[in-house]
Amino acid sequence: MQIGIIGLGRMGGNISVRLSKHGHEVVLFDRDPKVVDAVHGRAEGSQGTQDLADMITKLAKPRVVWVMLPAGHVTEATIDQLGGMMDEGDVIIDGGNSYYKDDIRRAATLREAGIHYVDVGTSGGVYGLERGYCMMIGGAAEAVEHVDPILSALAPGIGTLERTQGREHESLDPKAEQGYLHCGPAGSGHFVKMVHNGIEYGIMQAFAEGFDVLKNKNSGDLPEDMRFELNTADIAEVWRRGSVISSWLLDLCANALAKNESLSDYTGQVADSGEGRWTIEAAIEEAVPVPVLSQALFTRFRSRSGNNFGEKLLSAMRFQFGGHIEQHDTGHKHGADVPEKHS
Q1: What is the pLDDT of residue 321?
Q2: CA-to-CA distance for 26 and 202, rounded, in angstroms?
């Protein structure tokens, strides 16, 4: 299948490469021509383009274009521009972290021109190229079905994960086992991904706080016989082996602590992507109490005015799964050799 990809950062570039490995024809665009050339060199059979108009001319109808840009103005402007270039039956996919209410509005506007809009909440970070991407999808059924070859190629597949008992029930979507799911109408994909990220905040915060308690067990404020010098790298490793809290995020903790147990490479200034905030807003609208998710978000705010070991671990996890770069007061960025990433 042919598809245009706009935005070739860490995820957009890797998505392009993964699709090319599965035999899809990828037409590439990024505002930086050097990035286009770099991804073109990795994605066999791909074509580079100079601008959006050039991309549109290279795509056969019905066209499919995947936008992989930071949420906000740049995505809004790009989709608006595409809407004026594309024709009835074409499909625009937003695979970034857009606000779901924006999706609902965009879908309604594009529908008037007969253009389909599909929102794809995409999780997998820098590991997605090899592991595949977990995707949560919103949009009209016919549009989602049309782009299914793209989605199935990007998805991780069932792999070696043990099957969940009862999944054979006819009311359950078998594609969920493959790592992607049509959640409902436009906006629903990004809504589910938004809540996913809110939960992620809470899980990360729990690990951060727990390891902070372990790290400070040798505090001089404790009686001498109550102090333990605990090796947090070893504790993270043993918890990975059969513990009920074993998870990919714990794996990332173990990786970071094994490399540098003091986490001195990190300031602990923890950013938030916006989806944590939107999750809290949705909870308020629904009158659903979310004290854990709220506190996790507020802790990220507080971390920017003074940090502890736990917040350094939060930064370490974010950098590993998504290449998220700390913004230091001095202007120096931890991991600045990694290109900017939107999601």
Answers
A1: 86
A2: 37
Please tell me the distance from the alpha carbon of residue 266 to that of residue 312, in angstroms, as a whole number.
Answer: 5
Q: Out of 200, 275, 311, 326, which one is annotated catalytic? A: 200
Instruction: Kindly state the DSSP code that residue 91 receives in the 8-state scheme.
Output: E
- pLDDT for the residue numbered 183: 98
The stretches of the chain forming alpha helices (DSSP H) are 10-21, 33-42, 52-58, 73-85, 100-111, 128-131, 141-146, 148-154, 188-215, 232-240, 248-259, 275-286, 291-302, 309-322
**Mean pLDDT of each 10-residue bin along the chain, 343 residues long:** 96 97 98 96 96 96 97 96 97 96 98 98 91 97 98 94 87 95 98 97 96 96 96 98 96 96 92 92 97 95 83 89 69 35 40
Query: Using an 8 Å Cβ cutoff, are 290 and 296 in contact?
Result: no
3-state secondary structure of 242: coil
Active-site pick, 58, 101, 193, 224: 193
Let me know if 200 is a catalytic residue: yes
Distances (CA, A) of 104 to 29, 99, 287: 25, 9, 22
Environment class of residue 225 by beta-carbon count within 10 Å: exposed (0-12), middle (13-18) or buried (19+)?
exposed
For the purposes of burial, counting CB atoms within 10 Å of the CB of 274, is it exposed (0-12), middle (13-18) or buried (19 or more)? middle
The angle at the Cα of 287, spanning 282 to 292, to the nearest 5 degrees, equals 70
- 58 counts as catalytic: no
The first and second tokens of residue 11, run together, are 């995820």
Residue that has been written with the tokens 């290449």 in this structure: 323
160 phi/psi in degrees, rounded to 5 = -100, 5
As a whole number of angstroms, the distance between CA 93 and CA 66 comes to: 5
Go through the chain and tell me how many residues it has: 343
3-state secondary structure of 302: helix
Q: What is the predicted pLDDT for the residue at 340?
A: 35
Q: What is the pLDDT of residue 332?
A: 37
Question: Other C-beta atoms within 10 Å of 162: how many?
Answer: 6
